[in-house]
Every structure is written in C-alpha cells, then in structure tokens.
Amino acid sequence: MSAEILIVDDNADIRNIINELIIDAGYKTRIAANYNQALAEIDKKLPDVAILDVKLDKGDNDGIELLSHIKTKNKDVPVIIISGHANIEMAIKSLHHGAFEFIEKPFDQERLLNFVGRAVENFNLKKQNKEYESKLFSSYDLIGDSKNTTNIIDQIKKISLTESRIFIQGPSGSGKELVARKIHKNSLRGKNPFIVLNGALLDSNKYELELFGEEKENGSISYGSLEKANKGTLLIDQISEIPLDIQSKILRVLIDQKFKRVNGNSDVSVDVRLICSSSKDLKKEIQIGNFREDLFHRINVFEINIEPLSQRISDIPLLIKYFSKKISENYNIKELEIDENNSYILNHNWKGNVRELRNLIERIAILQPDTNEKISNIIKESLKIDNFDDQIAENSLSVPLKEAREKFEKEYLTIQLKKFNGNISKTANFVGMERSALHRKLKGLGIKEFN
Question: Domain 144-307 classified CATH 3.40.50.300?
C-alpha cells in the first residue's frame, strides 16, 4: 500500500506544486489550506507523513501546534516543517518539538522528495518493528524452572534498566534473541527500535553497508542498522561470523561513539545499546584468531549463558504445556493433551533446543491426532529415535540381569533427577521411594546429585 502524505500550506501555488510532486513520486496525498482544515484531517485519520507550513492563518506558529498535536496522537509519524520565514531559532524549535526535517522556502524539489522518502522509510520501519515486537512478545515468554532459566529471568530483571552492553552465549534455537528482546522491552528504551543484524546471514561484501549505511551519489541516504537502532537497541546475532576488518570498525564505534557512512565524510553520532550473541565459544574463536580479544571485552560487560535444552530437562514439561496452550490458541483448536513425561521427549538430545521442541508441538497441532497413541507415534517419528524401553531392552540383551537392571535404573533415575531439577524430595515422590533410600540408590549407582 502506498504511503499517504498530508500537505498543509495556505499558499495554493505551493500546495499544488508539492501535491503534484508527491503524487508523481507514487504516494497518495491529502491537502489542507488552513489550520482548521489541517486539524480536521489529522483528527479524521493520521497520515503516514505530514508536510506542514509553519505559518498558516491562525498565528505565527500554527505549524508547530499541529506538529505537537500529531505527536500526541502518534510520536512515530514523521513531520517535515517548511517555512518561508526560516531562521535558526525556528529550525531548532521545530526539531525540539519532534520534527523529522526542516526545509526553507523556496525549496529544492529533489531535496524535499528525499526527505519524504526517508520519512516514509522511517515510519514503515517503526511500524513493522512494533508489529513484529507485539506479535513476538504476546506470543512467547521465557518458560522454565531449571536453575539456568530462573537465573536468566532474574538477570533480565536486573540488567534491563542498566545501559550495560550484553553478550548472550547459547546454542542455536535456545532463545538468545528472545532474551535480548525481553531485555529491550523491559528497558528504558523499550518503546524505541529493536533492530537485529544477523552476522551469519549477510553477504560478505555488505557488512559495512548494513551496519553503517551509505551516502549515494544522488544525495540520498541508505541507513544502516546503527542509525535505525538510534535511541533503541541493536542486537548483533552470531557476531562470531563478522569478518575481522569489520570487527575493528565496530570496536572503533564503541570507543568513539560515532562513525562515517560508506562514501560519507561527516561523522554520525548515535545513541544505541548493543547486545551481541553467538552460538560459538568466542574465547575459543579468539584463540584460533577468528575474533578480536579487545572487541570481546568491550561487548562482554555482562554475560548471559543459555544452556542446551538437554541440560534443562526440568524445563521440558513446562515448555510442552506452554507451547501446547499457545499453539492451540493460534490454530483455534482444542488444547493438545501431550504427556509431559513422555520418555521419547525427555530422552531426546534436542540439538535444535527450544525451537525444535516448539516445532514438534506445532507439527502435532497441525496433524491433530485424536488419541495418545497417535501423538506418541508422531513424536517417535519426528524425533527419529527408538522407544526408550526398546533401547534399554536392546542394550540389555547381551548382559547379565543384574547389570541390565543397574543400567536401566541409572538411566531412568538420571532422567527423573534432571526432570525435577535435582530436587530429591520431588524425585523420590515420583519414583515411589523414600528420600534416604533414593540417596543410597543414587550413591550406589554412581549418580552425582546436584542442586
């Protein structure tokens, strides 16, 4: 859908020139010839971008009043102020009230179109970002009662209100971006942009353009992630994949708090909170020469480590219940009844971590099995592992009964202990043993207890 531009000017000739210029550029327009008409248009429906003359029929600063009125309705709507009586004080005043740009009459048509194009891009970016954030945050939460997950939830609460740079370490699919978004949403920057730059997905020749933007020969500007994230948060995901020469430029930005666009001559200053993440061990990457140690220390002011899901077995039943409810709501079907203690699920390696588990639940929801047996078959086929009992039986056929029993007990109790996050009382209650008897059994089998 083409962007809609509101044009407000009491001079009919100028109003018509701007209107034709904007229409020829492919945008829709609405026009107003005075203050009251403009107010009525704004209250009827907010435009995507507004072009306002400073002085209309009501007074010397009616354009500024209209600017303030728009900003009270939606601060993200870009407003371009134009004036035939321009001075530095007027320009500063309009920018102070939230104007996107200020331009003097008589204006250069290409310059005005450039301002409009940038304003539309800015508005669309903020709109898309809000829609995406809203969908994500209303859909998924950080779920689990393992020590690792509860520690991360506590860390998010503590560091969200700081400005510290954060490094998130964790395997693919474990929830690194979700953690970063939660930190942003709970921070003082939460209403401003959250921009993601994925170092693993970029063409090797486009890192600088994506980060710093570009000043083109025709005078237009392509904004990079740093400027798009101004006043907000920039997440550089998989920062381990960023080339060394670009790493040095990121380091320089962190030191100087400014940069130059590609083909640009002027310094650009931005106010951005940086969060970085990686599924690789950056300390090992430093040792083999793939990552700068000085950059690591700059980005790693506060570190969050997300463990693989296979080490957070106590989170799995809660995640199953949570995803079953959420996905059933999304598909508008009866809530799934999946056995949270299913041995296939608890014994699976989960190389794809939480994302893999969520995809499994979604697959079950789409197929809509009507019996527990069908659900179990889908799980077995999806995870491509043998039945837990079959594994134990097969592994036990070639050993004496005493050894087979010990092997089963060790695997069984290890899974149950992880499932209850090391809680001996809950584990004992579930397996039907006294606490003291379970302690002795664990010691005899050589299973290490943990808290």
Answer: yes
Sheet containing 49-53: which strands, arranged edge to edge?
A: 28-32, 4-8, 49-53, 79-83, 101-104
304 three-state secondary structure? strand
| pLDDT greater at residue 439 or residue 13 | 13
78 and 106 in contact (C-beta within 8 Å)?
A: no
pLDDT in tens, 57-95: 776 667 888 998 888 788 889 999 998 776 677 777 788
Averaged pLDDT, 331-351: 81
Q: In what helix (H) or strand (E) does residue 393 lie, and over which residues does it extend?
A: helix 388-396
The CA-atom distances, in angstroms, between 105 and each of 80, 81, 280, 347 are 13, 10, 55, 72
- For the domain covering 310-385, report its CATH number: 1.10.8.60
Task: Please provide residue 117's backbone torsions phi and psi, each rounded to the nearest 5 degrees.
Answer: -60, -45
What does the mean pLDDT of the chain come to?
84
Tell me the pLDDT tens digit for each residue of 294-333.
999 999 999 999 999 999 999 999 999 998 888 887 777 7
Residues 6 or more apart whose CB falls under 8 angstroms from that of 370 comprise: none
> What secondary structure does DSSP assign to 209-220, as a single string?
HHHH-EE-TTS-
pLDDT of residue 138: 47
32 strand-pairing partners: 8
Fold of 390-445: Arc Repressor Mutant, subunit A (1.10.10)
Is the pLDDT at 242 greater than 60? The verdict is: yes
Give me the architecture of the 4-127 domain, per CATH: 3-Layer(aba) Sandwich (3.40)
**For the purposes of burial, counting CB atoms within 10 Å of the CB of 85, is it exposed (0-12), middle (13-18) or buried (19 or more)?**
exposed
The runs of H, that is alpha helices, within 241-314 are 244-256, 282-287, 293-299
Q: Please, are residues 189 and 273 in contact by the beta-carbon 8 Å criterion?
A: yes
Counting DSSP H helices and E strands in the chain, the numbers are 20, 14
pTM above 0.85, yes or no: no
**Residue 137 has what pLDDT?**
47
Same fold? 4-127, 144-307: yes
User: Chain-centre distance of CA 393, in angstroms?
Assistant: 45
b/e sequence 40-67, b meaning 16+ C-beta within 10 Å: ebbeeeebbbbbbbbbbebeebbbbbbb
